[in-house]
Design goal:
UBZ1-type domain-containing protein
Amino acid sequence: MNFFSSFYTPSVGSRVTTSNIYDIFRSHWSSLYNQRQKAEQAIDEWKLALINEINEYAQRQKGLVQKTYCDQQTYFDTQREEFIETFLIYERKGDTEEMNRLLEKCKNIAGELVKLSFQSKDTQFIVVTLLESNSSTYNEDRKQSEIENDNNRNLSIQRTEGGPLDTRDSTYNSESGSTPVASNRINQTTTHTTDSNMLHVSGVSDDNLNDQCPVCFMIFPSHMLSINRSIHVEKHYEND
């Protein structure tokens, strides 16, 4: 027994009302709300942690780019001063060929700063797993309850229809002088013949009784026996 069940269990002798059901379901809703809040908080924390990890990794990679840029900038500044000094020497000598060759060397020292590539890294992603709802269990219990109610209803119909027949058949017919046993056989034969004729006259076949009542059009339950379905139909004609 969980906390809410024990908390909302009525004391002995107290009157149970619909308020108890409302209170219990309010506790269920409160519990679900708290669980939702915790789950969303865990997802947000995972998201922020992953974002922070990506940001930190990106900052480290940008730091490498910036360091390489500074090193290259320092190298270019040094090379520039050396090339200018050498160029002035060739210029004073009037060596045009060496001056042009030096300019080509200046062009060739240029290159790419860095090369970017992408690599796969293992990252844990949070996964939400849906749990089986309690509604399936409730629906199974409700279906079983409906079947039991149908069985009890069919049993009640049999007892109701059997009562008047037993009473009528056991009564001595003084006018005809029939005995109770003979009267019982006659009534059963007459009732069966009359009802059968009424069914055939109305165009109702025995196969139609497999699905629904031809009089009130009630859909018979799949577990209802054929004899019980016939009794149900005959009951309509007895009432008429």
